[in-house]
Amino acid sequence: MPTSPDRNHTSLPANTPPIVSSKDWEAAHQAMLVKEKAFMRAKDALAAERRRMPWMAVEKTYTFDGPAGKLSLLDLFAGRRQLIVYRAFFEPGVHGWPEHACIGCSLGADQVSNLAHLNARDTTLVYASRAPQPDIARLKARMGWERIPWVTITDSFDADFGVDEWHGHNAFIRDGDRIFRTYLINSRGDEAMGTVWSYLDMTALGRQEIWEKSPESYPKERPYKWWNWNDSYVANAAPDPKWVAVSDAGEAAFRNRDAGAKT
């Protein structure tokens, strides 16, 4: 098992925080929660602004190599409404080639959650590199990334979308066969990517839940109800009534707790 270089250290760093009683710790935690909730509300507001970003029409035709042959950008949507393409660096000249992809991109791939939940929000995630498909297949098998769709860039896609020299996530939406670029997250912003929430929050439609500040015409459902086991999603199916009851009870308990805290 890999070990940290500091594993054998027997003392803590200097200047650690004070040691306090349970009561004082709880007071400090409650004070910090005020700031954390403000931070979360600010993140929600930023995501709402993203949903109002102007869109850019994608006029050029792009071609990728996939496991079964040539694919267009439209093909990468896999029939869904939204698409997120992560430019991962795995190709000659990148540190680690040919055994590994870029260390940072590899760490990011390790964070990718089960994509069934993202797909249930009509959104597809695809990784794209310049390595040939046989090398990508070998890498995915070695690193346990079989669940991630991964294509080969064959043209100027990376340069045209600002990810030819550095990694990044580009978000797209389609209206029939018309494709629009809606957002880009790169650099340190990529550190937070990997969960269904981080992906949805960068898309034009967001989480598609009623609490979000989205335009009136956008798809909106009650939170929690659309959730399911990763092997149990059925397109256009009504939420599991037992789960609706459980989540309703949970929401009510949280509301009662918060109301009690204010009195």
Q: In the CATH hierarchy, what is the architecture of the domain at 56-201 at level 2?
A: 3-Layer(aba) Sandwich
Number of strands: 8
Q: Give the helix/strand class.
A: alpha+beta
The helix content, as a percent range, equals 25-40%
Strand order of the largest sheet: 1-8-7-4-5-6-2-3
Q: Strand portion, in percent?
A: 15-25%
Features:
263 residues, alpha+beta, Glutaredoxin, 8-stranded mixed sheet, 8 helices, 8 strands, 34% helix, 17% strand
Structure, explained:
This protein has 263 residues and is an alpha+beta fold. Among the domains are: 56-201, Glutaredoxin, CATH 3.40.30; 222-255, no CATH class. It is 34% helix and 17% strand. It contains 8 helices and 8 strands; from the N terminus they run αβββαβααβαβαββαα. An 8-stranded mixed beta sheet has the order 1-8-7-4-5-6-2-3. Strand 7 (168-175) and strand 8 (178-186) form a beta hairpin. It starts with 21 loop residues before the first helix and ends with a helix.
